[in-house]
Amino acid sequence: DAGITQSPRHKVTETGTPVTLRCHQTENHRYMYWYRQDPGHGLRLIHYSYGVKDTDKGEVSDGYSVSRSKTEDFLLTLESATSSQTSVYFCAITGQGGELFFGEGSRLTVL
Amino acid sequence: SQKIEQNSEALNIQEGKTATLTCNYTNYSPAYLQWYRQDPGRGPVFLLLIRENEKEKRKERLKVTFDTTLKQSLFHITASQPADSATYLCAPYMGRRALTFGSGTRLQVQP
């Protein structure tokens, strides 16, 4: 168990509303990631963080922002949710060998 | 552009046989490549990492090969069991800020 908790695990929201997903880790890892997973596209990187207040964009960052004010928490925000952001979102941290440990996922539905 | 290709069709095999999954990549020479297992509704779980200077890596019934000339990795499960049924993702390190994942191949082992 890599000590990663995602919340909420499921959320249904309406187009145009803001949504924040939280990733919490208990391992004190420096690197944290947000991926989305969609049928036919696999896992795609949204944003990542390499330390407190240090974040950078991934390949599908449009429409998303992130914040990391503490080592243990990495927040993903959709400022104004759209139906194209309906997806399963995974948070991950990097282990010592470069492997990723993933959370259980947050399933978001935007109506 | 960089691409990762995994067979999108499900692989169906009989229990006890060897399952072989393929991962091809283009336009890059990854320093290492990882394989993950993902069960429905769960986050991916790390299985094996193989480096560019390693031809083969084994872990129990799992074996991974890495052919940097062919730009291909093969993932083998020997003496397969129904419990091995899952989606398997390959993730070559493409020199970007995080791992890039293929879309995965679903393996179904029939008893």
CATH architecture of chain B: Sandwich
Low-confidence stretches of chain A: none
Number of structurally distinct domains of chain A: 1
The portion of residues forming beta strands of chain A comes to over 45%
Write down the CATH class of chain B.
Answer: Mainly Beta
Distance between the termini of chain A: 34 Å
CATH topology of chain B: Immunoglobulin-like
CATH fold-level label of chain A: Immunoglobulin-like
Using the CA coordinates, give the radius of gyration of chain B: 13 Å
Secondary structure: elements and pairs:
The complex is a heterodimer of chains A (111) and B (111).
Chain A: E1 4-7, E2 10-13, E3 19-25, E4 32-38, E5 42-51, E6 54-57, E7 64-70, E8 73-78, E9 87-94, E10 100-102, E11 106-110
Parallel strand pairs in A: 2-11
Antiparallel strand pairs in A: 1-3, 3-8, 4-5, 4-9, 5-6, 7-8, 9-10, 9-11
Chain B: E1 3-6, E2 11-14, E3 19-26, E4 32-38, E5 45-51, E6 56-59, E7 62-67, E8 72-77, E9 86-92, E10 105-110
Parallel strand pairs in B: 2-10
Antiparallel strand pairs in B: 1-3, 3-8, 4-5, 4-9, 6-7, 7-8, 9-10
What does this structure look like?
Chain A has no helices and eleven strands. Chain A has 111 residues and is mostly beta strands. Chain A has a single domain, classed as Immunoglobulins (Immunoglobulin-like). In chain A, the strands form two sheets. In chain A, strands 2, 4, 5, 6, 9, 10 and 11 form a seven-stranded mixed β-sheet that branches. In chain A, a hairpin with a 5-residue loop joins strand 9 and strand 10. The model of chain A has no long low-confidence stretch (mean pLDDT 94). Chain B is mostly beta strands and 111 residues long. Chain B has a single domain, classed as Immunoglobulins (Immunoglobulin-like), CATH 2.60.40. In chain B, strands 1-3-8-7-6 form a five-stranded antiparallel β-sheet, with no helix packed on it. The model of chain B has no long low-confidence stretch (mean pLDDT 92). Chains A and B meet through strand 5 and strand 10 of A and strand 4 and strand 5 of B.
